[in-house]
Automatic annotation (TrEMBL):
Binds 1 FAD per subunit. It comes from Chitinophaga jiangningensis. FAD binds at K50, D313. InterPro entries: FAD/NAD-bd_sf, FAD/NAD-binding_dom, FAD/NAD-linked_Rdtase_dimer_sf, Pyr_nuc-diS_OxRdtase, Pyr_nucl-diS_OxRdtase_dimer. It holds the Pfam family Pyr_redox_2. Disulfide bonds join C41-C46. Its cofactor is FAD. The lineage of its organism: Bacteria, Pseudomonadati, Bacteroidota, Chitinophagia, Chitinophagales. Residues 348-455 form the Pyridine nucleotide-disulphide oxidoreductase dimerisation domain. NAD(+) binds at G182, G183, S184, Y185, I186, G187, L188, E189, E205, G272. Residues 5-324 form the FAD/NAD(P)-binding domain. The active site is at H446. This is Pyruvate/2-oxoglutarate dehydrogenase complex, dihydrolipoamide dehydrogenase (E3) component.
Length: 462
C-alpha cells in the first residue's frame, strides 16, 4: 500500500492550494478527484455562472441603450447561446487547466482520479474510472468533497425532466418559460441570467421574502428590480405537485389556503445544496456528521477523528469559495506554523451576483436586533450617490449597522451597482476597527461609488 504524508479528498477550493503548500514543504501529498480538477467553483459554480452573467449584462445594456441616448437599428436583441456557452467553456477550461498544471508542477503531489472512500482511519480506497480499486494511506487526511444539488421531494418531480445549476450551464436553447424553484443565490443569479437571455422566468420561493437570511428591505429591492425586468416572483409559495412532459410543465403552488398552477417549458431546481459525505464511508472512521450529512468539525476544522480534517462546503456553515480557501490557510497555519486560528472570529463577506449586486458583510439589521445590540442604521439610497446618478445606476441602497456605543461597524448590506466592491471597502474598515465617524470624514477619490461612504455615515447625524 502506497504511503503518503497527507491525503486530500476532493479537488475543491481549499484542497488544491493546501496540496501545493504541503508539497512545497516536502510532504508527499495525494489528491483524489472523482470528477473534474478545480471542483464546483471552477467547473459548475462561480466561474461559469459569472462568465455567462457578463453576457446577459451586455444584452441588457444593449436593450436599455436608449436610456443613454444610444439607438440601435434593430428593434430586438438576438442572443447566440452556443457562443455564450462556448465562451464560458473556454474560460472554465483555462481556469481548470491552470489548476491542473499547478498541481502537476509539484513533484510531491500525486493526483488520483476516482471516488474516494475510507477503508480505515488512515486508509482511503479509490475506485478508479476503470473500476480498479487502489488503497493508499496517510497520517493526515483532509476532506474537501464539497456539496451537490438537493432535489426536493415534490410529487411528480422525479418523473419530469428538470435542470440543475450544473446541467443548465450547457443547454442548447434558451428556455422560453423557465420556472425556478428557490429564491436564493442560485435561483436569482440564474433566473436573471436567463430572463436577460430571453426566457420568461418565474421564481417560486416558500419563504415570506426572497433570500430568507437577508433583511426584508434588501429582499424587497431585489424583488422589485427583477420584476421590473419582467420576471414573475412568487413568495410564500410552496411547490405541491408537478406534472408534464418535455416543454410543457405544470406546477401547483400553495400559498396559505390558496392554490394556483404555474405553467412553463423548463424547470430549474435551486433549492439548496447537500454535503457530499455519503460516498466517503465515514463509518470506517470515527468522523461524525449531523442529520443533514455535514461533517462535524470544531472551530479548528478538526473532525471527531484525530488526524482527519474537513474544509469547505462539506462542513456546516457558509458555503462560499473564499471560505473554503480560508479553511485551508487556517489548517495549514495551525498544523505547520504552531498557530491556534479559529473559524469563529473570521469575517464572512459574500456577494450575490445579480445585477446590481448584493454585497454583504457582518450582521444584518435583523440579526443585530435579535442579538440585542444597541445599534444605529446608516442608510443611503443609490439615487443619492453621485457616481450612480452619473452612470444611470440608481437602483438600491447602502446600509450599515453601527454599534451605538462604540461607533464600530457591525455589518453592511449594499444592494446596488458595485455592491460587492463597496462592501469590501467596509469590510476592510471593520477589520481595521475603524469607526463610522472616521469613515464619514475619510478622503475618498471623487466621484467613486466608495466616496459615498462619507454620505452613508452622514445619514446618522439626522
Ligand atoms: C451555481 C453556483 C454558483 C456559485 N457561485 C459562487 C460565487 O459566486 N461565489 C462563491 O463564493 N461561491 C459560489 N458558489 C459556491 C462555491 O462554488 C463553493 O462554495 C466552493 O466551490 C467551495 O467548495 P469546496 O471547496 O467545499 O468543494 P468543491 O469546489 O465543491 O469541490 C469538491 C470536489 O470534491 C470532489 N469529490 C466529492 N466527493 C468525492 C469523493 N468521494 N472522492 C473524490 N472526489 C470527490 C467533487 O467532484 C469536487 O470536485 C457557487 C456554487 C454554485 C453551485
Ligand atoms: N454569489 C454567491 O456567492 C453564490 C452564488 C450561488 C451559490 N452560492 C452558494 O451555493 C449555495 C446554494 O445556493 P442555493 O441558492 O441553491 O441555496 P440556498 O440554501 O441559499 O437557498 C435555497 C432556497 O430554496 C428555497 N427552497 C427550499 N425548498 C424549496 C422547495 N421545495 N421549493 C422551492 N424553493 C425551496 C429556500 O427557501 C431557499 O430560499 C449557497 O449556500 C451559497 O453559499 C453562492
Amino acid at each position: 500500500m502506497e504511503k503518503f504524508d497527507a491525503i486530500i479528498i476532493g479537488s475543491g477550493q481549499g484542497g488544491n492550494p493546501l496540496a501545493r503548500k504541503l508539497a512545497k514543504k516536502g510532504l508527499r501529498t495525494a489528491i483524489i478527484e472523482k470528477r473534474l480538477i478545480g471542483g464546483t467553483c471552477i467547473n459548475d459554480g462561480c466561474t461559469p455562472t459569472k462568465s455567462m452573467i457578463a453576457c446577459a449584462k451586455a444584452a441588457q445594456t444593449v436593450r436599455e441603450a436608449a436610456q443613454w441616448g444610444i439607438y440601435l437599428d434593430q428593434h430586438s436583441v438576438s442572443i447566440d447561446l452556443p457562443f455564450i456557452v462556448e465562451r464560458k467553456n473556454k474560460i472554465v477550461t483555462q481556469f481548470r487547466n491552470g489548476t491542473i498544471r499547478s498541481l502537476e508542477n509539484e513533484p510531491d503531489i500525486s493526483i488520483f482520479y476516482g471516488t474516494a472512500a475510507f477503508s480505515g482511519i488512515r486508509q482511503v480506497s479509490i475506485t478508479q474510472p476503470d473500476d480498479k480499486v487502489i488503497t493508499i494511506e496517510a497520517t493526515n487526511i483532509f476532506i474537501n468533497t464539497g456539496a451537490a444539488t438537493i432535489i426536493p421531494e415534490i410529487p411528480g418531480l422525479s418523473e419530469i425532466p428538470y435542470l440543475t445549476s450544473t446541467s443548465i450551464l450547457d443547454i442548447k436553447q434558451i428556455p422560453p418559460e423557465l420556472i425556478v424553484l428557490g429564491g436564493s443565490y442560485i435561483g436569482l443569479e440564474m433566473g436573471q441570467l436567463f430572463q436577460r437571455l430571453g426566457s420568461h422566468v418565474s421564481i417560486i420561493e416558500p419563504g415570506p421574502h426572497l433570500m430568507s437570511r437577508e433583511d426584508a428591505d434588501v429582499a424587497a429591492v431585489v424583488k422589485n428590480m427583477l420584476e421590473t425586468e419582467g420576471m414573475t416572483i412568487h413568495t410564500s409559495s410552496k411547490p405541491d405537485k408537478i406534472s408534464g412532459t418535455d416543454n410543457t410543465l405544470s406546477l401547483d403552488i400553495v400559498s396559505g389556503t390558496s392554490r394556483k398552477t404555474i405553467t412553463g417549458t423548463h424547470l430549474l431546481v435551486a433549492t439548496g445544496r447537500r454535503p457530499q459525505s455519503a460516498e466517503l464511508q465515514l463509518s470506517n472512521t470515527n468522523v461524525t456528521t449531523d442529520e443533514k450529512g455535514f461533517i462535524q468539525v470544531n472551530d479548528q476544522l478538526e473532525t471527531t477523528c484525530p488526524g482527519i480534517y474537513a474544509m469547505g462546503d462539506v462542513k456546516p456553515g457558509p458555503a462560499f469559495t473564499h471560505i473554503s480557501y480560508n479553511d485551508h490557510l487556517l489548517l495549514y497555519k495551525n498544523l505547520f506554523e504552531n498557530k491556534q486560528l479559529s473559524i469563529k472570529s473570521r469575517q464572512v463577506p459574500y456577494c450575490m451576483f445579480t445585477d446590481p449586486q448584493l454585497g454583504r458583510i457582518g450582521l444584518s439589521e435583523k440579526e443585530a436586533a435579535d442579538k440585542g445590540y444597541p445599534f444605529k442604521v446608516a442608510c443611503l439610497g443609490m439615487d443619492k450617490v453621485a457616481r450612480a446618478i452619473e452612470t444611470g445606476q440608481t437602483t438600491g441602497f447602502m446600509k450599515a449597522i453601527v454599534h451605538a456605543a462604540t461607533d464600530k461597524i457591525l455589518g453592511a448590506a449594499i444592494i446596488g451597482e458595485q455592491g460587492g466592491e463597496i462592501m469590501s471597502v467596509l469590510q476592510m474598515a471593520m477589520a481595521g476597527d475603524l469607526t463610522a465617524t472616521q469613515l464619514k470624514e475619510m478622503v475618498f477619490a471623487h466621484p467613486l461609488y466608495a466616496e459615498s461612504i462619507n454620505n452613508l455615515f452622514m445619514t446618522l447625524e439626522k
